[in-house]
Amino acid sequence: MKLPVLRGRVFTRTAVSNEIVISQALSRALWASADPIGQELLDDAGRAFSVIGVVRDVDLLSAPAPTMYRSMADGEPGGVLLASVEGSVTAVGQQMRQALLQIDPSSAVQPRTLASAFEELATRFSVLVTFVSFLGGVGIVLAIIGVYGVVAFAVSRRTKEVGIRMALGATKPVIVRLLLSSGVAPVIVGLVSGVLVALGAASVLGKVLTGMPVPIDVRDPAAFGLVTVVLIATVAGAMGLPAWRATEHNPVDALRQD
Fold first, then answer.
1. How many CB atoms sit inside 10 A of residue 155's CB?
2. Domain check: are 196 and 211 in the same one?
3. How far, in Å, CA of 148 to CA of 155, rounded?
4. End-to-end CA distance of the chain
5. How far apart, in whole angstroms, are the C-alpha atoms of residue 128 and residue 134?
6. For 40-78, what is each residue's pLDDT tens digit?
7. Longest dimension (CA), the chain
């Protein structure tokens, strides 16, 4: 897989069975400040393995996982063969399958790409993603309805004030700008507070989702930006439309409003 060797060496054709190569993540977890070369690890059966090298982490998941590599002995069952392929993946896969069948005709060899493996894993989460997306959509709709209703009601309560200002000679654009500007401060405070809370919750969620088969960006700028724009547009509409309707009333009728 052409992983860069950071320390020590990798396996040779005459490698012994107790030699292992570890990843950066495993090296940091076990020997943060010490040299891992020559250190020993014990498996569940009590077998000792000697570290001969450290290679770069593989970022296949959302976070590099501590990994240990060892040379499989002849006749040892199981395992997955990974190959870096240049050219036609299908053609090379078939050649590998034929070569492996010549070694062991009874082996069930199924060549596949890493992309297809990740797509299969991703489909298992499609139902969860759909459900979460539905809940997110419902949450946004409820937020829009709630924000619009509260802001529109607050603006409509100023109808008498609008009538007084119009009676004193204020024009419609001036009144609309006045009502919009008066609601800017709470909107900014609400948006900033909401974004900070959402970022904090996203950090916690990111730790929970560490190791998912599909990398998930819990701090997606597009998602945060879209929701912010939608809420700003909602507030602007909730303030602007009632304010414009209030200016359409006769000032005398507006003064009679409770």
1. 23
2. yes
3. 11
4. 76
5. 10
6. 888 777 888 889 999 998 776 556 678 888 877 655 666
7. 100
